[in-house]
Design a protein that fits this description.
This protein has 192 residues and is α+β, with helices and mostly antiparallel strands. Helices cover 47% and strands 16% of the residues. The strands form two sheets. Strands 1-2-3 form a three-stranded antiparallel beta sheet, with helices on one face.
């Protein structure tokens, strides 16, 4: 197959294609109409929340390989707090910015890469929850922050907003799904 120049150029310098290495988290997604898959492996420093490394393995076409490499490259050295929940339009734009617009029959190649990457980050959050050992509820799964820790910061630092809590202990600064719970904790503390 002859690839467009931007895809061929990326294929000549793939930097993150490796067999999965058992990092912090991993996940796979597949494109069933052609039998292609891509698996992302992540190495995330749990203390700093920084993505230290990302690699992928795939049996896919050049479009899939190029899209996976772009996504991997753009994740390295990012803080979880800066990823804003890995919004699909943002990830699609990263691929478009580096590789141009995919033809309609090739957009699924990029979509599978996005699904696998998002699933790898979901695997990381799941592992955070599984590793959590505590009496209180785990509120922020991205950073493993318990209700007890959040309450402590609110009380000691007199925090009044979710953003203040995020700056103090990272809770609520990852995917954002816990921000409503943090607001409830703040409201309960302010109501005392």
């Amino acid at each position: 197959m002859v690839y467009p120049e931007n895809i061929a150029g990326k294929l000549s310098r793939l930097r993150h294609i490796d067999p999965p290495y058992g990092g912090t988290a991993s996940a796979v997604a597949a494109k069933f109409n052609c039998g292609s898959f891509v698996r992302f492996s992540l190495a995330i420093d749990p203390e700093t929340g920084v993505v230290a490394d990302v690699n992928f393995a795939s049996n896919g076409c050049g479009f899939m390989l190029a899209a996976a490499d772009v996504l991997a490259e753009n994740m390295i050295d990012q803080r979880l707090t800066d990823l804003h929940g890995l919004a699909t339009p943002d990830l699609q734009e990263q691929i478009r910015a580096h590789l141009g617009e995919f033809s309609p029959d090739r957009t699924q190649c990029a979509t599978v890469c996005i699904e696998a990457l998002r699933a790898a980050f979901a695997d990381f959050r799941t592992r955070q929850i599984e590793e959590f050992q505590g009496e209180k509820a785990l509120i922020c799964t991205c950073f493993g922050v318990s209700e007890e820790t959040i309450e402590s910061h609110i009380r000691k630092c007199r925090l009044e907003t979710v953003d203040e809590v995020a700056r103090a202990c990272n809770a609520g600064s990852g995917c954002g799904s816990c921000r409503m719970l943090i607001q409830e904790i703040i409201d309960a503390y302010q109501g005392e």
